[in-house]
């Protein structure tokens, strides 16, 4: 039998608060810590053949897949199955992973049901943690005492992603709905269903929406339906991005651009009008995570591959990391 | 004045002697007239002349008795006088005097010429006086001349005398030198003299004093006198040697006695052998009656003694296993030309001494042959002969020992693998060929390949494919023989040189390479290595054979489209797809498919693997699975590479769903037991996963048939490939 790591799939990535490390979590419950400093500014004399391999590789005790990662100044928050863990960054950056600093349990109704924490989002004031979960709900926790503040329920299937801007929250789900919420009232006030819009729907890929993001005026979302730019107030499709993809899993705004990828051979940087600015080839069959960091600029693209692509200029692939 | 006086006295002397001479001359003239003696006689030695004169005078007349006495004496006296005078006067002075007189004479002549020209009387007078004077001077000249003659003679005599003396002394000196030289030679000869006794090896001094009896060693004398010591030691040596010679003779005699005894015993034994043969012959009917193979075995062991040592080791060890495990599992036999082997053995025993020098010889031969060939080319003989020669050389290099060992390994159902081990005499390696015998013919092409193809022995031990010679020297030997191709080129001809085959015969080339630095010994088969390897090999091979037979059956089923995963028990899930094709594919076809790029680049599938293509169809969907079986299946699970043709073409590097199925089938992820799954189980799983994939796609063509909690889960929208035995069975995500 082959080693399962050959078929590795990375679902999420995060940078350490100091910006020197990149952590990536895969479906086998493994957490890889890459030393970006060593990889981006290699000292030729000290270069070994495994320089592009993880500096540390931690295994979660449960072995459950790591679905989402988000970082605060102190903690790395890991969303797996039925649990959200908070690990001190110091523990993550040591050779052996100790016990988590805290954990939040998401109780399921039946023992057979597994609730994936598909998406984690931290409110801009860094006080609230939002978790989009496999039980169709978005949970809001107070990060200080980790108590559940409220539940956003409105999806008919599991939640793919959670994102927000100011007090506005957006979530997308397998049911094909994109819901807009008010963080203060915890109520859904708007809803779009891209699969019902014949400009963007792709019935052969399904109705699911893999990713949705907010800016001040715009929504970008895509999944089974095409990636499209929606106007926040009118909730109309403004731009339909014509990409040769088989499903969108990543989409967000960055510097007046939309960055998007998924089951495609490239990661795209797109203008609001629909032009493709940059087409970045990727190693992964499907991209599940593309995380950005500024100063210095690093874009890490990971997905269903043991390889993680690193770009510093957004124009070409600089390095390939091996998560194996 | 003094000079004039001297000249006058000299002149007087000269006159006197001239007068004397004159007188004697007159006398002589008188006799000359009478006796007719020739002047030559007169010119003989003066003593002689005078003696003769005396005699003649005596004989001529007695009248002038007084006168006769007188002139002889005078003559003698004159001679003596002149001789003494010549001695007394210095020659130099005479020479100057002579010159002066000559000058005077010349002066006189010139005066006379002058006077003559005057032609007066007075002059005539003067001329006369001058003439007299000149005459007188001539007389003086004559005297001087004579004196000089006398002096010269005296000097010559003296010189001659001295010369003789020098000669004699020189001779004496030569004699003495010769004598001295001779003496020196004698001295060195004496110094270089070596006594015979110095060559004799003597007992050391300490031992001599310790062992020799007092009367021989006589320490009181020998300790002081070295010569005596030497003599004593020699005496002791002689005594001892005599004793030893005596002992030696005794021993030789006893040896001869023993030899005679041995010869007698041997002749008796020889006489015994015909009897034994008779006895053996007599037992034959009994053996046949009881169906015993005693004779055959005896024959075989006789042949075994002719085997080269590596093959002998193999034979000995494997026949031991054959005895232990029973003939149903392992049989061993020797085949080949025994006579040829016997001849070879005789040859090699003769040549064994020459082995070492062989290499250089062969080089020389090469050169010779080349030259001969060149010559031949000149004679325009056909090119064929050269090729033939090369062919012969090739044959010589790859010459096998005429005998080979055959090991047959059988498994329960009657499938047998017959291995033929041959020994290459010159390359010193073992090669293996094999045949498979099946109890019943195999239906199906790919199934038959499993047992018949070369791959059955592949990777029996890791990375041992028998594709190149394990002996490091092979390449060199081939090059030395002028064969440009590598050993691989000839494998189909000679058989495969598997490393396990070498080890079974006790040949360990790695060990020799390491040993080389220490001592360059000839390659000796190691018995212990052979023992352990043979045991392990037979077990491994049986296991391989068993698994191959099982695989063959599996493949046979697959080829007919039948999948029977659990022996007898049916799979709990209804499968909607069906296996429509199963066939073996080649490496080029395998690498052509885009789905295999990843497996090949990771080195997970190689050319040595068995490759198959399975096609599974369900309605409009077609799943093509390229299956790679490792040689040591089922120790290593088969590797699947999938391509789905439905709504376009999908494979693992562009579609995550296919990648997920490959992950579940190929990897050890969430495998309950660590047992490697069999091919048919994997195929069943593949059919199931295909059903799930198609049913979760939401297409109306494939109505959901399986029970599953949720068709997709997680951001990666993974399908439920995990089967839980709950109720009728539920599929969940991993």
From TrEMBL, chain A:
<dbReference type="InterPro" id="IPR019775">
    <property type="entry name" value="WD40_repeat_CS"/>
</dbReference>
<keyword id="KW-0853">WD repeat</keyword>
<dbReference type="InterPro" id="IPR015943">
    <property type="entry name" value="WD40/YVTN_repeat-like_dom_sf"/>
</dbReference>
<feature type="repeat" description="WD">
    <location>
        <begin position="152"/>
        <end position="191"/>
    </location>
</feature>
<dbReference type="InterPro" id="IPR036322">
    <property type="entry name" value="WD40_repeat_dom_sf"/>
</dbReference>
<dbReference type="InterPro" id="IPR042626">
    <property type="entry name" value="THOC6"/>
</dbReference>
<comment type="similarity">
    <text>Belongs to the WD repeat THOC6 family.</text>
</comment>
<protein>
    <recommendedName>
        <fullName>THO complex subunit 6</fullName>
    </recommendedName>
</protein>
<keyword id="KW-0677">Repeat</keyword>
<dbReference type="Pfam" id="PF00400">
    <property type="entry name" value="WD40"/>
</dbReference>
<dbReference type="InterPro" id="IPR001680">
    <property type="entry name" value="WD40_rpt"/>
</dbReference>
From TrEMBL, chain B:
<dbReference type="Pfam" id="PF09766">
    <property type="entry name" value="FmiP_Thoc5"/>
</dbReference>
<feature type="compositionally biased region" description="Basic and acidic residues">
    <location>
        <begin position="384"/>
        <end position="395"/>
    </location>
</feature>
<feature type="region of interest" description="Disordered">
    <location>
        <begin position="341"/>
        <end position="395"/>
    </location>
</feature>
<feature type="compositionally biased region" description="Basic residues">
    <location>
        <begin position="374"/>
        <end position="383"/>
    </location>
</feature>
<dbReference type="InterPro" id="IPR019163">
    <property type="entry name" value="THO_Thoc5"/>
</dbReference>
<feature type="compositionally biased region" description="Acidic residues">
    <location>
        <begin position="360"/>
        <end position="370"/>
    </location>
</feature>
<comment type="similarity">
    <text>Belongs to the THOC5 family.</text>
</comment>
<keyword id="KW-0539">Nucleus</keyword>
<protein>
    <recommendedName>
        <fullName>THO complex subunit 5 homolog</fullName>
    </recommendedName>
</protein>
């Amino acid at each position: 039998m082959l080693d399962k790591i050959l078929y590795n799939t990375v679902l999420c990535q995060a940078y350490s608060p100091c910006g020197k490390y990149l952590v990536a979590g895969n479906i086998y419950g493994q957490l890889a810590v890459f030393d970006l400093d060593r990889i981006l500014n290699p000292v030729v004399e000290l270069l070994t053949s495994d320089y592009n391999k993880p500096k540390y590789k931690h295994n979660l005790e449960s072995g459950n897949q790591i679905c989402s990662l988000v970082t605060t100044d102190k903690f790395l928050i890991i969303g797996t199955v039925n649990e959200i863990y908070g690990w001190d960054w110091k523990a993550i950056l040591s050779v052996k992973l100790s016990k988590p600093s805290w954990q939040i349990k998401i109780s399921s109704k039946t023992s057979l049901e597994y609730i994936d924490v598909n998406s984690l989002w931290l409110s801009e004031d860094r006080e609230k943690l939002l978790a989009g979960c496999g039980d169709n709900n978005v949970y809001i926790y107070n990060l200080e005492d980790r108590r559940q503040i409220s539940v956003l329920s409105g999806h008919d299937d599991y939640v793919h992603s959670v994102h927000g801007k100011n007090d506005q929250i957006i979530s997308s789900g397998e049911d094909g709905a994109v819901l807009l919420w008010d963080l203060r009232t915890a109520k859904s006030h708007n809803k779009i269903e891209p699969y019902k819009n014949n400009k963007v729907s792709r019935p052969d890929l399904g109705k699911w929406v893999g990713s949705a993001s907010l800016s001040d005026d715009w929504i970008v979302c895509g999944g089974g339906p095409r990636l499209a730019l929606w106007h926040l107030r009118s909730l109309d499709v403004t731009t339909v991005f014509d990409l040769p993809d088989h499903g969108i899993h990543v989409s967000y705004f960055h510097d007046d651009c939309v960055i998007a990828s998924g089951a495609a051979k490239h990661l795209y940087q797109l203008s609001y009008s629909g032009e493709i600015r940059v087409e970045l080839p990727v190693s992964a069959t499907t991209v599940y995570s593309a995380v950005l960091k500024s100063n210095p600029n690093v874009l890490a693209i990971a997905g269903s591959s043991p390889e993680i692509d690193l770009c510093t200029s957004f124009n070409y692939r600089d390095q390939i990391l091996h998560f194996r | 004045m003094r000079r004039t006086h001297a000249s006058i006295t000299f002149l007087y002397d000269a006159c006197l002697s001239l007068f004397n001479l004159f007188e004697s001359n007159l006398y002589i003239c008188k006799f000359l007239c009478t006796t007719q003696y020739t002047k030559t006689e007169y010119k003989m030695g003066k003593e002689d002349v005078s003696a003769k004169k005396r005699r003649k005078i005596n004989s001529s007349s007695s009248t002038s008795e007084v006168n006769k006495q007188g002139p002889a004496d005078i003559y003698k006296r004159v001679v003596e006088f002149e001789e003494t005078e010549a001695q007394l006067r210095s020659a130099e002075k005479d020479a100057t005097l002579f010159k002066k007189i000559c000058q005077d004479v010349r002066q006189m002549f010139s005066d006379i010429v002058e006077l003559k020209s005057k032609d007066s009387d007075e002059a005539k007078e003067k001329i006369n006086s001058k003439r007299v004077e000149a005459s007188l001077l001539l007389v003086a000249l004559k005297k001087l001349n004579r004196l000089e003659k006398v002096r010269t003679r005296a000097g010559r005599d003296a010189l001659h005398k001295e010369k003789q003396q020098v000669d004699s002394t020189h001779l004496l000196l030569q004699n003495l030198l010769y004598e001295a030289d001779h003496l020196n030679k004698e001295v060195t000869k004496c110094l270089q003299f070596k006594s015979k006794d110095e060559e004799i090896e003597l007992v050391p001094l300490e031992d001599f004093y310790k062992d020799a009896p007092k009367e021989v060693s006589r320490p009181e004398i020998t300790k002081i006198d070295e010569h005596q010591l030497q003599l004593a030691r020699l005496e002791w040596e002689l005594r001892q040697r005599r004793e030893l010679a005596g002992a030696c003779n005794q021993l030789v005699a006893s040896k001869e006695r023993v030899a005679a005894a041995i010869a007698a015993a041997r002749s008796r034994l020889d006489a015994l052998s015909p009897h034994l043969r008779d006895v053996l012959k007599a037992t034959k009917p009994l053996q046949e009656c009881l169906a015993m193979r005693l004779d055959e075995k005896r024959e075989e062991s006789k042949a075994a003694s002719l085997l080269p040592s590596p093959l002998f080791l193999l034979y000995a060890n494997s026949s031991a296993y054959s005895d232990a495990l029973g003939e149903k599992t392992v049989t061993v036999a020797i085949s080949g030309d025994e006579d040829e082997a016997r001849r070879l053995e005789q040859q090699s025993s003769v040549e064994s001494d020459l082995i070492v020098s062989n290499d250089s010889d062969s080089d020389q031969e090469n050169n010779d042959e080349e030259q001969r060939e060149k010559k031949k080319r000149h004679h325009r003989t056909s090119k064929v002969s050269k090729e033939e020669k090369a062919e012969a050389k090739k044959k010589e290099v790859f010459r096998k020992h005429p005998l080979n060992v055959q090991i047959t390994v059988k498994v329960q159902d009657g499938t047998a693998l017959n291995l033929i081990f041959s020994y290459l005499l010159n390359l010193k390696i073992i090669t293996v060929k094999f045949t498979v015998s099946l109890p019943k013919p195999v239906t199906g092409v790919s199934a038959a390949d499993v047992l018949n193809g070369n791959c059955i022995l592949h990777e029996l031990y890791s990375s041992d494919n028998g594709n190149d010679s394990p002996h490091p020297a092979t390449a060199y030997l081939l090059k030395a023989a002028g064969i440009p191709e590598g050993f691989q080129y000839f494998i189909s001809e000679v058989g495969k040189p598997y490393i396990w085959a070498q080890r079974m015969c006790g040949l360990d080339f790695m060990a020799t390479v390491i040993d080389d630095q220490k001592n360059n010994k000839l390659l000796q088969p190691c018995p212990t290595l052979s023992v352990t390897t043979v045991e392990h090999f037979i077990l491994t091979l049986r296991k391989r054979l068993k698994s191959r037979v099982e695989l063959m059956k599996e493949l046979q089923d697959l080829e007919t489209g039948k999948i029977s995963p659990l022996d007898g028990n049916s799979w709990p899930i209804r499968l909607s797809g069906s296996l429509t094709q199963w066939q073996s594919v080649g490496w080029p076809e395998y690498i052509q498919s885009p789905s295999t790029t990843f497996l090949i680049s990771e080195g997970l599938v190689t050319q040595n693997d068995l490759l198959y293509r399975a096609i599974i169809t369900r309605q409009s969907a077609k799943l093509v699975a390229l299956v790679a079986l490792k040689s040591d299946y089922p120790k290593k699970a088969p590797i699947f590479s999938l391509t789905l043709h439905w709504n376009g073409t999908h494979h693992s590097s562009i579609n995550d769903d296919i990648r997920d199925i490959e992950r579940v089938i190929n990897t050890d992820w969430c495998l309950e037991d660590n047992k490697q799954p069999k091919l048919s189980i994997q195929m069943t799983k593949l059919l199931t996963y295909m059903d799930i994939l198609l049913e979760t796609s939401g297409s109306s063509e494939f109505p959901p048939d399986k029970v599953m909690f949720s068709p997709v889960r997680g951001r990666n929208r993974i399908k439920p490939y995990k089967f839980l035995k709950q109720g009728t069975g539920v599929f969940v995500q991993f």
